[in-house]
Design the sequence.
């Protein structure tokens, strides 16, 4: 008997269209202490809020990519009901460009899996949180920016950048051709992830391709100069 791939089995059990969201998280040394602790608690809030929504828990898929001196796929795509928030630790430099490239590749492969299994999907979200600027070579960062903006133009991804504490907001403004970065108010990660959960719920309850009005982010953002 031919064994079905795990993805095929999962999609047969849950044929709902998928709403993929990659959390691209800076875990460099400057995030140590209160910032990384607040981020970890925020991830737990994200799970707690999303899993309350029966439809979102079947449609929203979460993946986590971290970057410091290197890049790691901490969590591959999984529906929220199966998502177990990791406990992240901070150390090292800021390989932001490599992180963006890895996240985009993860999204590309997941979309191929959806298509191969006849599963519909919403435009993927790439949600980056960082408190710094890249420490990599300029070439890697240029490739990342080019790849990201090309994918945005194809409507292949919605990119969000959140600046924590002393992150270089001017540099982050160069990344996306569609959306300016926003600065987190203090360490309001709980409020941020509550907003992200509410946003995912709105998107996942809409029709694929339908424009969705997102919740007001004023509870966790501050106006940057």
Sequence:
């Amino acid at each position: 008997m031919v064994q079905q791939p795990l993805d095929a089995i999962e999609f047969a059990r849950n044929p709902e269209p998928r709403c993929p969201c990659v959390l691209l998280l800076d875990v460099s040394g400057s995030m140590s202490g209160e910032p990384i602790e607040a981020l970890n608690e925020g991830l737990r809030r994200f799970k707690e809020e999303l899993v309350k929504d029966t439809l979102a828990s079947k449609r929203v898929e979460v993946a986590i990519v971290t970057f410091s001196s290197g890049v790691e796929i901490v969590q591959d795509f999984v529906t929220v009901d199966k998502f177990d928030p990791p406990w992240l630790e901070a150390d090292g430099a800021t390989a932001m460009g490599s992180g963006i490239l890895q996240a985009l590749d993860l999204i590309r492969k997941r979309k191929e899996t959806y298509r191969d299994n006849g599963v519909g999907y919403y435009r993927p979200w790439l949600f980056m949180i960082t408190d710094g600027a890249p420490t990599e070579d300029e070439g890697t960062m240029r490739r990342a920016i080019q790849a990201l903006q090309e994918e945005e133009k194809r409507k292949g991804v919605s990119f969000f950048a959140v600046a924590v504490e002393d992150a270089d907001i001017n540099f982050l403004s160069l990344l996306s051709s569609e959306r300016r970065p926003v600065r987190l108010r203090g360490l309001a990660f709980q409020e941020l992830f509550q907003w992200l959960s509410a946003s995912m719920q709105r998107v996942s309850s809409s029709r694929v391709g339908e424009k969705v009005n997102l919740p007001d982010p004023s509870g966790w953002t501050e106006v940057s100069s």
Remarks:
- The chain is about 40% helix and 20% strand.
- Strands lie at 19-26, 60-67, 71-79, 125-130, 158-163, 182-184, 221-222.
- The chain has a mean pLDDT of 93.
